[in-house]
Amino acid sequence: MRIGIDCRTILNPEKGEGAGIGHYTYQLVKNLLEIDKKNSYFLFFDKSVQVKRISKFKKKNVYIRFFPFNQYKKMLLNDYMPLLVSATLSRDKIDIYHSPTLYLPRSYQGSSIITVHDLAAYKFPELFSTEESRLKINALDSLGRAQKIIAVSQSTANDLNQIFNIKPQKIKVVSNGVDGRFFTKRTEAEIAKIKSKYKIKKDYLFFIGALEPRKNLIRLISAYERLRKGLVEVFSPKLKNTSQRVELFSKYQLVLAGAEKQNINRQNNWVKKIKDKVNKSGFKKDIILTGYVGSDDLGPLFSGAKLFVFPSLYEGFGLPVIEAMAKGVPVITSNTSSLVEIAGKGAILVDPYNVAEIAGTIGKLLLNSDQQKSLSRKGLRLARQFSWKKCAKETLKVYKSI
């Protein structure tokens, strides 16, 4: 087979390299090329990508191609550009075209597969910008023309059925994997170095994700404030009154890592709201916004965390939860969407809309070292079930099926 894969979301730092769809595409392609030497792969990049950074994909059965334009988002919104995409694909006589985004060029008539990561723009339309809402117009057409749709979780598959009435037999659930580097233990020296880099001076609760409204950071900060004020119901002979709880929980900082996703609803400017929430907090000195964290720093930051708290309102998969588990960090996450499915019994699930419940759960877990150890063991076992090689093998089966 001659398999074409849209790789424009990877190897571009401005697109969030190492995160989101770019991370998925990179890991999928990398592992496909390791397990499949028979089929030919045509990898399509944006012209702005540096050639030297694509050298890692060079194999005998790999052909690097560049679309004759730049600026991925503008391309999606231009009626003329899909014709250029189709012409480029046709020249290489592609048997199957795999788009890792919810988009197929309207003029492309060949066999195709789409990976759907989440349907947040449909579940929470009020949280998305006008520009992103325009992209949704293409979704129904693309989903209708694709021969198969890969959903990264059963929850996302259910959303496809409920929102677009896509028949279950057209959907194949193929879970994301977790990078093997997350299973590597970090030394105390490495953790100390990364804490110094980000000015972390205490034990800390950790979150990573884009600074966007569905990540629920306003409520997480409120829960942290409630914890620091001692306004949590925890039962311990050592904590007989509020002042004792305040003293105990003052030992923990809140570290919020993630890029500022400015394209989300500029009118409401959620990034500004999050920063204002931090600046007005009585505990702002202990709330750290790191900004985008590169892959080299991510492992030590996970390893150094006391707890990983991820109260997202909606996830198509929830990869940070699995990454935290791979590091052996106890996880608290939401009882919504794919997080229930992915986290299983390896995490404590909370109502993401209930600030008191989030704060209380954090407090109780901080006081229970036995439960922390139990969650760490369960989470590690669960994380080992997710691998990118397995994702690649199952994706290859989807290619063969059409």
What does this structure look like?
With 402 residues, this protein is of the alpha/beta class. It folds into two domains: 2-177 and 387-401, Rossmann fold (3-Layer(aba) Sandwich), CATH 3.40.50; 180-383, Glycogen Phosphorylase B (Rossmann fold). It has 17 helices and 13 strands. β12, α14 (337-343) and β13 form a beta-alpha-beta unit. The radius of gyration is 22 Å and the shape is elongated.
In a few lines, what is going on in this structure?
This protein is of the alpha/beta class and 402 residues long. The protein has helices at 20-35, 72-77, 81-91, 120-123, 130-135, 137-145, 154-164, 188-197, 217-228, 242-249, 270-280, 295-304, 319-326, 337-343, 355-367, 369-383, 388-401; strands at 2-6, 40-45, 62-66, 96-99, 111-116, 148-151, 171-173, 203-208, 252-257, 287-291, 307-310, 331-334, 348-350. Helix 1 crosses helix 17 and helix 9 (217-228) crosses helix 15.
- Low-confidence residue ranges: 72-77
Tally the helices: 17
CATH C-level class of the largest domain = Alpha Beta
Sheet having the most strands:
7 strands, parallel
For the record, the count of structural domains works out to 2
Tell me the span between the first and last alpha carbons: 11 Å
Strands, count: 13
Mean pLDDT: 87
Q: Rg to the nearest angstrom?
A: 22 Å
SS strand fraction = 15-25%
> What is the structural class?
alpha/beta
Within the largest sheet, what's the order of strands? 3-2-1-4-5-6-7
